[in-house]
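Sequence in, structure out.
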Amino acid sequence: MSALILDGRELATELRAELTARSALLLSSGVTPSLVIVLVGNDESSRAYVRNLVRTGERCGIRVVVDELPETATTLTVRQRLERLHDDASVHGVMLQQPLPVHLHIREIADAIPVNKDVDGAHPTNQGHLAFGSGTDFVPATPAAVMLLLERSPHWPLRGRRTVMIGRSIVVGAPVALLMLAQDATVTVLHKESASLQPYLRDAEVVVVATGVPRLIGGADIAPGATIIDVGTTVIDGTLHGDVDFASALTVAGAITPVPGGVGPVTNVALLRNVVASAERLMLR
């Protein structure tokens, strides 16, 4: 029996309708929700993601401006571009697109993002709130998308569930693990230095995988009926592949996200929801 497909496109359509209505209220008050994306270099996956954000913003009444910097931009230049947006009242959200070129390091730059406009949750203060379990104004977009999809799975709520997060990046893996912990899940984090994915993977009721290793896991690796959230996106010969061998996992899992059409579409809307929330918050000040 095939798994339930957790359709990100369908969920994104529902979320966009809500987002458009909230944006319309802001626009009627003379406020145009606005996001500035600082994009460094020529990473094609980043450019595709940013193009999608611009298009989605146009559909939802949100202004998205892309501030492009060359591949050779220095840490100081990137910091200055971010810092100049602190006091710009017309800007409600600021995002530094990742991954950065290899000579740049997010830990040397993230604190330059205006903390009250940090809609992708990259600033150390927002990361700290997430880790501390005290709540944060801005949950990073991809982890937020993962949680929104999990809410539609057979294993929601997560309280007491055995969950596995494969990947530990500060962009996806670590925040998702923290968000699942906040829902009282029992969380195991696996990564490239783990001796083995088993027996943890086969014991898990929920698996989230974000490694960038195509077809890392398949149907034989997971428990029957498990919920699988695939965050991976790797282009091979012009085709997008996830970290899960979808065809084999589909016959074993209880619920699964496709690639493309799973986490990606929801990520776009999750980020723009943070922009609208920021505009609403700043308008009330």
